[in-house]
Amino acid sequence: MPSHHEPTLPEPRRPEPPAGVKAGRVLRNPKVWAVPAVLVGLLSLLMSLLYLGGILDPRGDLHHLPIALVNTDRGAEVGGQRQNLGEQLVTGIATAPGQGDTVSWRQLDEATAREQLASGKLYGALQVPPDFTATVAALGGASAKPARPTVIQYTNPGVGSLGSSLAAQIGQQAVHQASLALGGRLSALPQAQGLDDAARLLIADPIAVSTTAGHPIGNRSGLGLSAFYYTLLLVLAGFFGANIIGNGVDVALGYADNEVGPWRARHPVVPISRSSTLAVKCVMSVGLSLLTSSLIMLAGAVILDMDAAHLPLLWVFSVCASSAVGLGVQAINAAFGGLGLLVSMFVFIVLGLPSSGATVPLDALPSFYRFLALFEPMRQLTDGVRAILFFDARADAGLTRAWIWIGIGTVAALLFGFAMTRYYDRKGLHRTVPELA
User: 334: buried, middle or exposed (CB in 10 Å: 19+, 13-18, 0-12)?
Assistant: First the structure.
């Protein structure tokens, strides 16, 4: 029987990629390079100037760093006269020449100094103990091993490790200079002439410094930096969350492409005003800040065991802070469109980080950064988080100021954002693009 063969169907051919312009031709077009080059170049230059300009010389930029001088010396007989060497010591330190405006010495009583340490208003304190004059007077006595007069130096790690360290260095240098001056006077006394070499060396530089934490913080506080990093997480959550929400809403409403790997799709355009779109994005930013703030607290305070008190207050503050940042980003993006990402990044991150006063204290920053700190969001939020974590949520430690600025920022963002979108809507500047015939 004759064999019958089934006809062979041709294999389906894979669609060829659409013919178009080659990459080389695009790269040779200077217009393609112009805008990215200008924006990327300016961003790199400004970020370098801003970040490096604030940290290169903190000692040289010091401006009225607040340090307390506390005299509790009771006085004693020295050389046949009643004296209070502690009072002379603190007065000499406060009025020493050559200090300029680098340090703000505050002569306070012990209770006030402790209160200001506990509210973050001081970076450190020097305290002269009650028996200071009596101990100095005993140096030339009959004791073979006289006690060395000691000044107590209190640090304040809650204001940041660098700020506390700067205050400690300045305090030690001031006490050392005062010690040499006191030693010169003691060495000139008649009773010092018959002392042995060891005693004469002790009298020449008599004062020792004992350093202790004036307002201790927990061991798991990042040496005082946990408040800064916690604030940074809140700001980044608000910033990135707002941009992710904005893109997601635009995709869902058909105003942006949904592109995942090689797949690209666009939903039908939903006719909606700019103001209504902004309202949707703002509500979502506030809603998701509940999630992000909870997860940040879960990671930091629970999983990583960060030292944190007042957790309910910290959570409420975190939600409000992250929401305020998110609303600000949504308003800026609604007003500036594609450039909104760069504008909001400068407002909340690029200008905020170096002027936050969290890593380098504001008193050790150039004047431009101190000006930015008057209104930059990250400075205000850092003060609030720091007050909750380190200073027992005291209002005068920066918490009240932080709440006020959260309110100002939220109202300003809503007013600005909806004013701009309503203006665009009234002018007929809709986001829909008419189809070409």
Answer: buried
